[in-house]
Amino acid sequence: MKLVLDQYAYLDSPLHRWQQDYKLVGLLSLIFAFAFIQNLWLLPVMITITWILFSLSEIPISFLIKRLRYPGWFILAVVIFLPFLSGNTPIFQWGHLIIRQEGCWDALLISVRFFCILTVSLILFSTAPFLSSIKAMRSLGLSQVIVDMTLLSYRYLEELGEMLTTMQRAMKLRGFQPKRLSRRNLEVFAQLTGSMLVRSYERSLRIYQAMILRGYGCQVNSKKNYWKLEINRSNLGSLLATLTAIATAISLIVMQVFLPSF
Amino acid sequence: MHIPDGFLPPHICLAGYGITGGVSWYCLRQINRDRHVQANIPKASLLTAAFFVASLIHIPVPPTSIHLILNGMMGAVLGYYAFPAILIGLFFQAVMFQHGGMSTLGVNAIILGSPSIAAYHLFRQRDRFRSNQQLFTKILAFGAGAGSLLLSAGMFAVLLITNISPDIDVNTERTAILLSLGSYGIQAAIEGVFTLMLISFLEKVKPELLKS
Q1: ipTM of the complex
Q2: Which end of chain A has the smaller Cβ count within 10 Å, N or C?
Q3: Which residue segments constitute the domains of chain B, with CATH numbers given?
């Protein structure tokens, strides 16, 4: 299991220079504004904003396509039924098969919303190292327990993935090739999962010992670095970008409320 | 069983975040009452990562294969840590694999996380039975695994199908919900048996894992 999250985190684009805590506030506002959109007139606006952000991020388009591939299939499997099931106005009929206008619009709205939100999320977490994102969330008030759990889980995710691959390879070498669902096969899978849990548990005990030896839990400086709105030369650009993103998000919501529906 | 971005109306997404905030606060309050909270964090974290990786194991069910959700099992092993663990797992899946999404993170956490807390309370009932404890452990393990998946599937199907489009006929919605619950019922049975086997394995090999 390879986590390619930080693959493009060290480029030098305007989106990469936008401080992660400010970026989190700005782009999350945009994501929620996109989720608000129900009016088809606003879809081109949403696509334009997403395209501008993606162009500014300098992330290769191949990376986006690769990331969209799997969830894209799921979306396709769901929205493909909407034109046949949703609405009352038929636009095409072939025997019992009727394609309805409202269903087509719903499918379009959901697909565009999904594509735009997913791209903005990808930009948000791919234009900074993952650890910076966690630190930004901590500064925005995320609980210390959740922060510690996230950091530790992230640290060992790849190693446990490797462990699972090794164990599965060993099983295969010993002749385990499950082709059907049977009690024996399920039991072997349960033992594989159980072995992984036991190994992780035993490892966690050693990790905890190592952590307390390095001072885990000792509050040397108990002052917490919560996010504060400060205006200085270093964060002026980030602040302006965040304010622009929030203003865009509010404008989209206002347009959604006041624009006549499609 | 993740609802992707763009499928739900904003008020449901916001309500999902609100309820997730409340449940997380309650779980964290219970966690902070623990005398060994500092020692339990590495355990819960490593087990979170292990469950995340274990959910990638594919079980062959010809002509296809399924992957397990394991939220009931997480509840049984992690207790109140299960809810933040699922929240973290969903966050990783949204960020790393684009399963689920940032706008629906709260809703997905409720769908998968709240049944895990119910599973924890159900599985804890085994301490009440002094005689025949092994048999009751097996029954409760099956109930925790299958029940939590059915609960999650019910919430997922109802939320997705009733909110995906306002123009879908009520009868079509009802049929779609029943159909999806039927297929999830089979998976719930598999997950229940798997949880039973996994709990039996852990009881033999590392019983302290079920008590910690």
Answers
A1: 0.88
A2: C
A3: 10-211 (1.10.1760.20)
